[in-house]
Amino acid sequence: MEKKNWYNLSVEDTVNLLDTNLTDGLTEAQAAERVETYGYNELKQGKKKTFLQKFLAQFKDTMIIILILAAVISGVVGILESKEPVISVLDFLEKISDSFIILLIVIVNAVIGVLQENKAEKSLEALKKLSSPVSKVLRDGQILMLPGKELVPGDIVILDTGDYIPADLRLFEAANLKIEEASLTGESVPVEKITSVIEETDIPLGDRDNLAFSASLVSYGRGKGIVAETGMNTEVGKIAAILDSTEVTQTPLQKRLDKLGKMLGIAAIVICVLMFIIGSSYGKEPMHLFLSAVSLAVAAIPEGLPAIATIVLAIGVQRMVTKHAIVKRLPCVETLGSTTVVCSDKTGTLTQNKMTVEKIYFNNNTVDVENISSLTNELKLLITSIVLCNDSKIIIEEEKTKITGDPTETALVDLGLKFELDKDELESTEIRVDEIPFDSERKLMSTVNKDSKTNTIKVYTKGAVDELLKRCNRILINNEVRELTEKDTAEILKANTSMAENALRVLGTAYKDTNSESADNAETELIYVGMVGMIDPPRPEVKSAIEKCKTAGIKTVMITGDHKITASAIATALGILENDDEAITGADVEKMTDQELENRVKHISVYARVSPEHKVRIVKAWQKHGDIVAMTGDGVNDAPALKTADIGAAMGIVGTDVSKEAADIILTDDNFATIISAVEEGRRIYDNILKAIQFLISSNIGEIIVLFFATLVNWVEPLIPIHILWVNLITDSLPALALSFDPAEENIMKRSPVPANTGIFTKGMIYRIGYQGAMIGILTLIAYRIGIHEDPSNTILGQTMAFAVLSLSQLVHVFNIRSKTNSIFKSGIFNNMYLVYAVLCSFILMIAVLFIPFLQDIFNVVTLSGRDIMIVVVLSIMPVLIVEILKLFKINSFKDEN
């Protein structure tokens, strides 16, 4: 069937096109035939990755591949080095112990990655649940209850309050029909539906008032519709298609670590080749040179880094839970810290998703509700009339008051409660005896209420101000009823316009005394009382959160399906729309090419009346500038953009299942401010990962200097492979891991985000890694030379002292890493007790290796004399003295300023 703009077609044309019957519906034979043609009314789901595929994907990382190669080479070397044949499995495992340890680290890292990153692709399953309710369908002239999946184009669906819409419908009956479409369009109030033809073409989803969309909810009234689209052809289906086609991109940290792995791999190869060439010039045996080169390769690669990065992020995930954020994909924790743009939905995210009366007009004057301290007679009558002319219900659940009904009407009842005018109490005295329900053509509602004490009868009417004024001939001002003049009308309409321009939804109210309990002629000769202006107000904490974004160099952008005037008013109040910022609509976005949108995107702060496709285009336009985009939202319509963004943050309370499954992070308190707390946590984690990288690489640089220099001057190697592997996996890894618990720096949210294209090795980082690595390497070489000074043939003593200084100096040096500028005594040693415990643990393990006989044999070390121990201690604490002096003269961080 050719794709149609169903809202442009009349009911008759729709019936003819779909070959159906409004009174009898389709026959069972027609329905069966159409199932064959169109398929079931359900959403297709892409093929999911198996656990094995996700596990194997963890090994695509460059550094992981290098580690696997290192493990294989280490295993071969272990067997070749052994002079004795392999006689048992245990003997074999002992010879490849280095290889086994490296592979174990790699596998553990992969398992953690899969468990944390197993981002279940349940988006389409959640959509299926929404799009497959049981519906009342007319078939063969009878009303049947059918599962939503069995509906076909041409079916006649009967709608009542509380029903989910099972497919996209062209409405042909609508009796006070209002449908909640917020999850699909972003509009904060239910849409009043019509049946007439809409002449305009290419209008936004939220303005197609003669259609009902799959996954939306009937909040009021009743109606009937013809199924026009099913399955993947519905508006929800289009969203499902976008979700299924969206690819998950690498996070900034993943890209940086991947680049780091390649650099380390190349560096290891280059150094090994140089070492081989230099060694050959000294006439050393090729096998000996090969073993030395492998030792150097092991020294160049921080084996523990992938696991440490993964564990640091996992710890960050647990911390995020305490900040009301559930992280579904591990690397996203760090990505938050790089966020430069937050694109936020309005309804339920920036606002409370609860209509609230903000202004009241009476006595020819507009006042803010919050400024009203007491009720005048006119104000009491105004509030009483809108509370009684109201179909909302007050429910007490677990000692909490809950108001159910149309959002506009619940706001009026809530206003009454603020001023102790309880609807139930009022109705117990003024009993409703008749009514004229709201009608979208009249735009009015009236009730007739009889006072049980005085037997007096009043008519209360509320509705659109212009329509209400046509029914009024008098006005209540300053406790006096007088004739309604043209001047009064002009003042009222002016106030109405002013409220509307401030994005307030306005309702007027009037009353009259009557002798009849009938509603006949109730809406004539009314007395105008006043009007109220309502809006879905901003969350109180959001404005300060947006200010915090500005100081942190993060731009906030509002993207909503609501009207432009409403979106602009909220954005202005929150500080999103200011200066030369622009507010445009989805229609404007539709007219732009991708290039035009990319050129203008930095100057646009508000997008109104947008579709899910527009949201995705906006996110991509920012990403093309190199920005890291976080997207917050709660509706089905937000899901594609949530998945496309670098970080998708869904609301946990009011958010739909679809948005939660598409997102990377779920905010359990539905608080926009939580995303800013999460950004702060992300920055802290990124800083701490950089500290760990600096610590590990500087340590490895020290090892490389030791081995390379020894080859250069034709010394016996100061360190053997097991020493290097022990330092890299045990002595270094525990303190590096503990750095993840370092507290955030005071200025962390007062600096700009790290650009996505900035690598790990900035000028400052290279400088610190270089000089600190050289410092550790030189101190280790000094220890080695002292050890072999008296007896050059006694290399085992020199190797023991070098091994001890290399390990212990790094345990001391880790405290230098915590701050580039502050002394360790100023930044505090004991404000990260995990680091203190990690250093103590590594220290105890190192002492065990140095002094327990059977461990001495394994590590090929000897017991040190008191003199040797003193030398080791002095050399090991030197890094603190050196770095403290450089910090004092601001030499430690001067490259950061260049």
UniProtKB/TrEMBL annotation:
Record GO terms (molecular function): ATP binding; ATP hydrolysis activity; metal ion binding; P-type calcium transporter activity; P-type sodium:potassium-exchanging transporter activity
Domain Cation-transporting P-type ATPase N-terminal: 5-79
Known EC number: 7.2.2.10
Keywords attached to this entry: ATP-binding, Calcium, Calcium transport, Cell membrane, Ion transport, Magnesium, Membrane, Metal-binding, Nucleotide-binding, Translocase, Transmembrane, Transmembrane helix, Transport
UniProt keyword annotation of Transmembrane helix present: yes
Coiled coil, from the record: none
Cellular location(s): Cell membrane
InterPro entries associated with the record: ATPase_P-typ_cation-transptr_C, ATPase_P-typ_cation-transptr_N, ATPase_P-typ_cyto_dom_N, ATPase_P-typ_P_site, ATPase_P-typ_TM_dom_sf, ATPase_P-typ_transduc_dom_A_sf, ATPase_P-type_domA, Cation_transp_ATPase_P-type
Membrane topology, from the record: Multi-pass membrane protein
Pfam families named among the record's database cross-references: Cation_ATPase (PF13246), Cation_ATPase_C (PF00689), Cation_ATPase_N (PF00690), E1-E2_ATPase (PF00122)
Regions that span the bilayer: 62-80, 100-118, 263-283, 289-315, 693-716, 722-744, 765-784, 796-815, 835-854, 869-889
NCBIfam families reported in the protein's UniProt record: ATPase-IIA1_Ca (TIGR01116), ATPase-IIB_Ca (TIGR01517), ATPase_P-type (TIGR01494)
Family: Belongs to the cation transport ATPase (P-type) (TC 3.A.3) family. Type IIA subfamily.
Name this polypeptide is given: P-type Ca(2+) transporter
Organism: Sebaldella termitidis (strain ATCC 33386 / NCTC 11300)
Taxonomic lineage: Bacteria, Fusobacteriati, Fusobacteriota, Fusobacteriia, Fusobacteriales
